């Protein structure tokens, strides 16, 4: 094995041996007598080939495999061990690997003295151990006796034990589901073997085969339990490896969880009993236990709807919390795991831990921060960083330690320190931090830069007084080199600043104008031009931006030119003084080589000149709700009936401003980069993205999209799918049961032109039960036969656990009828006991069951889509005076006007316009204006004048309704009376 | 949260000078979260989607090497949605790759165990690429005694070293006083343990 003459060049490429030559050499395996040393060295070469990524064809691998099996003839332990390894490596590369089963089985069952009885080795090994064990013979022989192996020398025993373990691990790799039962007996025995190595090998092997042999492995649960609770003392040598025996617990615990994981109660019991005692000695097992404990708490809080988990005395979570807390001064590894577990329980829900409760975790992490080991510092910082995302104030105690780490030589640590400090920092420390950041900004990779920019963005919003510093920093990094993602994050940070802090608008726009002068990213240029068009006209001197924008028309590609044309038109539309200039500039664009640019220029020129067109197209800040429009168009084209035009009136409008946050979120899945998003996989993750503006789309915006995803099940239902082109609205999903009940039921209402379809989703949470013929019985509270008739019920044939399925109930309404009704609702079904895994029922006999759920209400809001109009008063005037219906009401039991507004909006399902849903505090009179589209595309406007009588807790209101159709106005007004 | 025993996604040894592979083992850990989220999951679900082809693996190694070669003392890095801990040994680098949510100290413990165990079986604290290739049988067995298909099975380097069998003797080779032979290694290991015990 000399390297001297090897090709140095090949070696440096990671090619050490020639494959064909090595394979040729395996012929020595057939020689008699076999040279074990030579064979082992050759197998080493084969392993090198495999590990360096050399590809073996199936035939080559099979040949090699069978050549290797010949080596079983030799009993040398050193050779045997490497054969096992090679079998494992080739198990999925070669064919017919089952051939070696019997050889391996023999090794597993061999008595110690039978295996490797080569006298030479025996004596040599005995001799070698004779030296070192000189003074320890008593314990040595007692260990041997304990094994029941007679007086065999310890060294051979050790090797044998090792080989039993190796053979076990190898045999599981070559088995397939059909052959595993054959080795069940050995595996089961080996799990409870007194020797750590054998027990571990058996446990790990069972773990590997679990997916294909779950029923078999389940039967060993008692053995696994025993392996967990009676830790091994490695018996091969007297007391040398005491510490390592406990690792078996790690494997036993892992396997036990795997077996029980479907059964929440069993897992909870297991975790609780182990947490109470201090039987778990292995650090690794403790870490696993911590994770299982967290899982239990998550499951519990999920099933109890997020009640405060720690305050409930005696509950599972309380016990778990005490356990985690006690681990916070354990050794580093467990401490980190426990601290991280506690941190993951801190989130914005009511179930979150309080500051005092999480304190032990913070203290523990603080200890790790000052460790000299990079891994420890890194781990602690990463966890603190996560905590800071949720609640920065909890981390402030560590600020001093973290500031030390800003200059750490490991850039990942430094970046985590900085981003965390940016979250926790106070206003006074911002300047210092910014200086430190700019000094190393050029040294780090783009993905870290993105993270830092995001942190700065949040900070800038937090401390408006510092916005000048931040903005100049952002502007300077914008000029640096960088990739698209990085530049985009900077630009978005500036966008956010502009949105939140109007003071910095002009400076920010100036920076952006400068940036697009030399911007290589078309997408960014387009977005900046759009922002200029939207915000520029509001500045004191709009004319100065025209030059920048028109420069783009001259210099850039067609996408940017088109965006620039639109931006120019925006200036022309909003600012009278620059309109002539814009006209001149747009006229020049009429000759543009690109048709989109020409089209936009022509359109805008025409619109600019006429005041009414200008108002309708250029100054209109509402747009059609795209998801609704899309669904409508899809159904229209699918229906194939093109005699009628698409009914655009039935598509609600929403303000442009609401489109932006949704689009931004959708457009930046990588926000937060590698470090944030899936970091520790905890529930806290959801709150981490530092989005500005509304955190979720307003309810109105959600309702405007008619249930987007929820028609997907309807489309699959052959009976109901033909109705889809007449779909008016789908409501969002409403739960009809509490979370802790055995069945979870939720409802979506689909309203069609003439039909009403209830989609009732049922989830069975009990694995041991199979539901069949699940249907729904609906009893109306008032007679509805004249206006609505139940035409069809589509039941669920068979419902397995955790597999959501849907019942559909279809009603046909009389033409023009919009009945409001409340149904007393219950599920009817046949319950059968079944196997929790295969879901095969135990018998054909089931028993009928009824399950009452909350009432299903069909209200007026179901026939209404919220919409917006550009200008309420002109729209109000445009609707006919005669259609107006006015009612006056006195509503008792309402403490504030805000409550009244919320109730009305909720009841009518319309959208509050012109910000009238915001009632200033301390005000006693308010006017609420609402916009909506009624079934059939009838526009509806409502004006509610209300006065609060604070003493009587009552609200007097005058409701005026105008609609495109008088009957509709009547219906809407009546709904409020009810 | 990783609720499975599958901890190590890959173990890689690279030449520090040019990033070429000395040894690499990728374990089928698959997506651990899939087993955790769905209550009726199909066991540990070893369905590897990343590192599926040798080409992916080589690309990953190359980028990892470029990223870390100048930062040998950093020991830990977030790379490509993985936590990677690493350590230089003479002219090679040893990497242990885990998932993003993994406990860094577990990975670091595996790394140190492997590092120590390889040194123990090779009996040289300057573990060079050439030594590793020449003694691949020993190194491979040491790794196999530490990690079984992504599951850490032993964390004590001494135990691992003692479980690695020595090479078959060609009688002339046997010399108990030769510190470079395996029996020498075993002696050394055992001596150090007994020294430890006696001190207690």
Can you tell me about this structure?
- The complex is a heterodimer of chains A (978) and B (200).
- Chain A contains 41 helices and 18 strands.
- Chain A is an alpha+beta fold and 978 residues long.
- Among the domains of chain A are: 243 residues, Leucine-rich Repeat Variant (Alpha Horseshoe); 92 residues, no CATH class; 154 residues, Coatomer, gamma subunit, appendage domain (Immunoglobulin-like); 117 residues, 2-Layer Sandwich (TATA-Binding Protein).
- In chain A, the strands form four sheets. In chain A, strands 3, 4, 5, 6, 8 and 10 form a six-stranded antiparallel β-sheet that branches. In chain A, strands 13, 14, 15, 16, 17 and 18 form a six-stranded antiparallel β-sheet that branches.
- The longest helix of chain A is centred in the N-terminal third of the chain and has 21 residues.
- Chain A starts with 7 loop residues before the first helix and ends with a helix.
- The N terminus of chain A is likely disordered.
- With 200 residues, chain B is of the alpha+beta class.
- Chain B has a domain of 139 residues: 2-Layer Sandwich (Beta-Lactamase).
- In chain B, the strands form two sheets. In chain B, strands 2-1-5-4-3 form a five-stranded antiparallel β-sheet, with helices on both faces. A two-stranded antiparallel sheet of chain B has the order 6-7.
- In chain B, a hairpin with a 2-residue loop joins strand 4 and strand 5.
- The radius of gyration of chain B is 18 Å and the shape is globular.
- About 14% of the residues of chain B have low confidence.
- Chains A and B meet through helix 3, helix 5, helix 7, helix 9 and helix 11 of A and strand 2, helix 1, helix 2, strand 3 and helix 3 of B.
- Chain A: This is Coatomer subunit gamma.
- Chain A: It holds the Pfam family Coatomer_g_Cpla.
- Chain A: InterPro entries: ARM-like, ARM-type_fold, Clathrin/coatomer_adapt-like_N, Clathrin_app_Ig-like_sf, Coatomer/calthrin_app_sub_C, Coatomer_g_Cpla, Coatomer_gsu, Coatomer_gsu_app_Ig-like_dom.
